[in-house]
């Protein structure tokens, strides 16, 4: 087993960055579809977006050998360095998400909505944040478990799922703005549709990822065995698959297939169940990154 250089602080950063990027993507997409109908989702996503990535970046700074020198990353820009691009991307995302939040504060600009320019900048920066760490990993050719284009794809899909789950968690447990039952139904329906589609894409991407690794190099196949029948077997099958995919999918499919006024439209629905499902999705999203980061370092690297 090789030494673990990237540990829990890096995992925490990846998870937090994914939540922020995903929450902003969901919020902007909801505003494009219908500003009024999905106002609760839009505002909640705006309020969430700037903060998880701030805590995650703080943990990233503490993981540095010289934390107080982190500011030097912003004294230069190196377009051939993924690290440099990532640092500036985080800064740009943080600024854009704060402006987006400001635009949604009560009374700001007399209720005027963010313009198309801000929404475009928000979507592009959020997309960049959600995939750049995956791109960083897949460029490390010496680590065959990471050296696949499916890693950025997994991180992006998981980020949007986690962002939607974070929005749902806040809406269902804390009910900001005291939404009416009708507003809650609309929000649940929108998040339900997102989850159904993205969970399907996630399962497909994860399957292709594992199949590709199993049929590639010996080291990559070794990492797959760590996940499916070794050190991280329980973590993968219980947290990622069962808690993060299967249980939420069953819940979402039940609501989708029910012919009567289903779990999403009942006036007296216990929204804590929906909040619990969001919690399970977030747990699965964290464990996905934990497993990817650790498994990639627990197998032999390729020396060129």
The radius of gyration computed from the alpha-carbon positions, rounded to a whole number of angstroms, is 20 Å
Mean pLDDT: 83
CATH superfamily: Formate dehydrogenase/DMSO reductase domain
For the record, give the distance between the C-alpha atoms at the N and C termini, rounded to a whole number.
19 Å
Question: What order do the SSEs take from the amino end to the carboxyl end, as H and E?
Answer: HHHHHHHHHH
Which overall shape is indicated by the principal axes computed on the Cα atoms? globular
Portion in strands: under 5%
Helical segment count:
10
CATH class: Mainly Alpha
Assembly status: single chain
- The portion of residues assigned to helices is over 70%
List the topology elements.
Layout: H1 8-33, H2 39-48, H3 50-62, H4 82-103, H5 116-138, H6 150-174, H7 181-214, H8 218-229, H9 233-257, H10 271-297
Helix pairs in contact: 1-2, 1-3, 1-5, 1-6, 1-10, 2-4, 2-6, 3-4, 4-5, 5-6, 6-7, 6-10, 7-9, 8-9, 9-10
